[in-house]
């Protein structure tokens, strides 16, 4: 095995293990997107029911922007096959 292959595996596993706190040990794209959607709904409901009109609309727009960014990150992780990797048996 060449040194480049070992370095790539180490770098990739370090990056992907850094986001493991969001997706858990055995990640799936569906659970990631479901968590993003639930959190988005909770924040939108909280803002709409508790704040006056101009502020709630602004914060709702910001929450939707963050949700779109999160969905894009989920799509990138899915394209990198992060959600298809089997868990490590250590």
**Contiguous uncertain segments of 5+ residues:** none
**What's the tally of helices?**
4
Return the structural class. Answer: mainly alpha
In percent, how much strand structure appears in the residues?
under 5%
Q: Number of folding domains? A: 1
Radius of gyration: 18 Å
**What is the molecular shape?**
elongated
SSE pattern, N- to C-terminal? HHHH
Provide a compact summary of the structure.
This protein has helices at residues 3-18, 20-23, 29-50, 53-79. It is mostly helical and 90 residues long. Helix 3 (29-50) runs antiparallel to helix 4.
Throw out a few tags for this protein:
single chain, 90 residues, mainly alpha, 4 helices, elongated
Helix and strand topology:
Elements: H1 3-18, H2 20-23, H3 29-50, H4 53-79
Helix pairs in contact: 3-4
What does this 3D model show about the protein?
By secondary structure, the chain is mostly helical. It has one domain (28-90). Helix content is 77%, strand content 0%. It has 4 helices and no strands.
């Amino acid at each position: 095995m060449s040194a480049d292959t070992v370095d790539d595996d180490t770098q990739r596993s370090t990056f992907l293990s850094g986001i493991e706190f969001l997706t858990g040990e055995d990640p799936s794209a569906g659970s990631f997107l479901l968590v993003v959607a639930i959190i988005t709904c909770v924040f939108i409901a909280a803002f709409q029911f508790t704040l006056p009109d101009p502020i709630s609309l602004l914060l709702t727009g910001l929450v939707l922007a963050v949700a779109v960014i999160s969905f894009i990150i989920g799509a990138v992780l899915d394209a990198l096959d992060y959600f298809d990797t089997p868990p490590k048996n250590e």
